TrEMBL record:
One Pfam assignment: SIKE
Region listing for Disordered, in residue ranges: 190-213
Xref: InterPro entries: SIKE
Protein name: Suppressor of IKBKE 1
Coiled coil is among the record's keywords: yes
Source superkingdom: Eukaryota
Family: Belongs to the SIKE family.
Biased composition (Basic and acidic residues): 194-213
The organism of origin for this protein: Tachysurus vachellii
Keywords tagged on the record: Coiled coil
């Protein structure tokens, strides 16, 4: 019995240490989220503060204005999604550990109660049945949380696959658009000399002079 109690106490200590680690990780995620939101806010303020005329004088501004906001938004959205997913997984893991700790403590209380009742020679069946019902309830809750975690992970995986396919399609369309622009520029350079040559007036042929003898 003492060996079993020592194992229960050791498991409880291990779970408490894991809960502390998860609390620290959750606080770190909250700090990262706040820093990320501040960065987005500062970027918006800087973009609004610069005058349009000054920005238009910068070489390559038009190309940057087309590509850079899209790239920045994609990066920020990806980071936010990763932080949200990590936060959800941490909360699920935290709940799993809490219910597991509750199960361990319930078994510990049951064993302690058995020891006390054996010493006092009392009927332990009613109390033990209550503890068993409570343990079964905790076990069912833990199983439901595990199922929720699996469903959430599958949903996130499907969402990531859809996001990657959309991103890949967008990159493909951007490449096709650039190639079409290049082809249009090439066709203009080829057709321009032909149009200029066609627009020149045709010179009339000079009449031949016949010498009269």
């Amino acid at each position: 019995m003492s060996c079993t109690l020592e194992k229960v106490l050791s498991d409880a200590r291990t779970l408490l240490e894991r809960l502390k680690d998860h609390d620290t990780a959750a606080e770190s995620l909250i700090e990262q989220s706040s820093v990320l939101s501040q960065r987005i806010h500062c970027m918006k303020e800087v973009g609004n503060a610069l005058p349009d005329k000054y920005m238009e004088t910068i070489p390559g501004y038009q190309e940057l204005s087309k590509s850079k906001p899209h790239i920045l938004l994609t990066q920020e959205n990806t980071q936010i999604k990763e932080l949200q997913q990590e936060n959800k997984e941490l909360w699920l893991s935290l709940e799993e550990h809490q219910y597991a700790l509750e199960l361990i403590m319930g078994r510990y209380r049951k064993q302690m109660l058995q020891l006390m009742m054996e010493k006092k020679e009392m009927d332990t069946k009613p109390v033990l049945s209550l503890h068993e019902d409570h343990a079964k309830e905790m076990q069912s809750k833990l199983e439901r949380i595990c199922e929720m975690g699996q469903v959430m992970r599958r949903a996130v995986q499907v969402d990531d696959q859809h996001y990657c396919s959309v991103k890949e399609r967008l990159a493909q369309l951007e490449i096709e658009n650039k190639e079409l622009h290049d082809l249009l520029a090439i066709s203009k350079t080829v057709l321009k000399p032909q149009q200029e040559e066609a627009s020149k007036p045709e010179t009339e042929p000079k009449p031949k002079v016949i010498d009269k003898e």
